[in-house]
Amino acid sequence: MKLVDEFRDPALARRCAESIARAVTRPWRIMEVCGGQTHSIVRFGIDQLLPDAVTLIHGPGCPVCVTPLEMIDRAIAVAERPGVTLCSFGDMLRVPGSRSDLFGAKSRGADVRVVYSPLDALAVARENPERQVVFFAVGFETTAPAIAMCAHLALREGAKNFSLLVSHVLVPPALLAILSDPEARVDAFLAAGHVCTVMGLDEYRPIAAQYRVPIVATGFEPLDLLQGILMCIEQLESGRHEVENQYARSVAQHGNAEARRMVESVFEVVPRKWRGIGEIPESGLGLRAEYHSLDAERRFELGDTHAEEPTECHSGRILRGVEKPADCPAFGTRCTPEHPLGATMVSSEGACAAYFAYRRPGA
Question: Which end of the chain is more exposed for a tag (fewer CB within 10 A), N or C?
């Protein structure tokens, strides 16, 4: 089906859903790996258009949600130091750490500021040379180029009062972790179109070949998602396991070469702990040696910390695709956006937040 400019056309959506129903002959489980896609699926009822044989599973596609407790605790510890200003994307402020969140730190007098770009944080550092300004660098490959550019500029300018608390994560290693998880059965993936816009498709080909799973780079509008699902189903039904590109209007085969070069010049691949999942090898980005002067963990000698997830929170199982939000006994009762147990309830890309907004009774 050729997509047109109107990606929310109900008639086209129905026709695409009918094509999926005609193609399916057995049960299949497809995971979308993007919180933005999850919100579109739940908001527009895309999963409810599909035949019962097709199950959509929500994956660890929310970088805020997978930021570990320890990193939230470190951000709070830095923010509460005298003379420090912590800048962050707004989603991070209500994510609970082991004892508090950044909003709590702000209410106790810490200078915590919401910014819309890492360059805004660098501007704060320029305007306040007497303060140490720390940017909480969180995200997938999509935000990494802008943060790498910010680090490059800060080093070039010799910004002595600016540093980065880095918690970047990478998508392909997370797919490998899910495929190796005996509890998480996934037959195909919808890859996040914005990540692929930066990184391209090449990293997904070995995964598709090794685990014999179709991977389709997909956009975020309803028809993008329905067509991506149809492309997965057609592969599964024919026994193929290839990497395909539904989001060709944005994704090039090898991604954005300039953005990739910038990321690779500033960051190196490191192990990274994922909230609710655990440490995944080669799944994060850390500052290269020449940028260690901008590393907030080194500057403030934060060291290793350890924090336990609250046992009542099922966000780890939700992020691994083992459960859906409504399967958690605390969902919508003891866990709400006002009083969250985990990040999946407060992030704008969290699966629990999507279900609370669109699927809970009375929503």
Answer: C
